[in-house]
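Minutes, project huddle
Topic: does the predicted pose make sense with FE2/S2 (inorganic) cluster bound?
PN asked that the exact inputs be recorded in the minutes so nobody has to dig through chat later. Recorded below.
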Amino acid sequence: MRVELTVNGERQQADVWEGESLLFALRERLGLPGSKNACEQGECGSCSVLLDGTLVCACLVLAAQADGHEVVTVEGLARDGQLHRVQEAFTETGAVQCGFCTPGLIVATADLLERTPSPSEDEIREALSGNLCRCTGYAKIFDAVRLAAER
Ligand code: FES
Ligand code: FES
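Predicted holo structure (tokens), as shared on screen:
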């Protein structure tokens, strides 16, 4: 089946299988490998994207469900060659090690700061509780969120 959706502000079309995930379609059909596939079960958050402004795990959404809708991936956060403030904060604080969790954390953080510009520690932890990182121990990730919020 053919789906039409807006991805990072651009109208896109893709021929997908009925059971295919939005994550697979983004990575393999639309050439957007930023969203990562670490578990494909909704457990890790590495595939987090915005679907009509709502944070979702792209591995749990069918590509067909995104037909006619708007998706923003980590690739869509930068503007005019300028990194998003959350992307900058993650690199500046050393919050990136292997980087596999990073795109999902960045999308989730951007979503948090859009809704809550000055989040408390508890709000940061709650907002990122669906994003697992095996490398950093989270301290530098929380530093990055605070730095992005300050800006
Ligand atoms: S790959 Fe989607 S939640 Fe892990
Ligand atoms: S930096 Fe490696 S999983 Fe987070």
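Observations noted during the meeting:
- Strands lie at 2-7, 10-15, 48-51, 54-57, 70-72.
- The mean pLDDT is 97.
No decisions taken; revisit at the next huddle.
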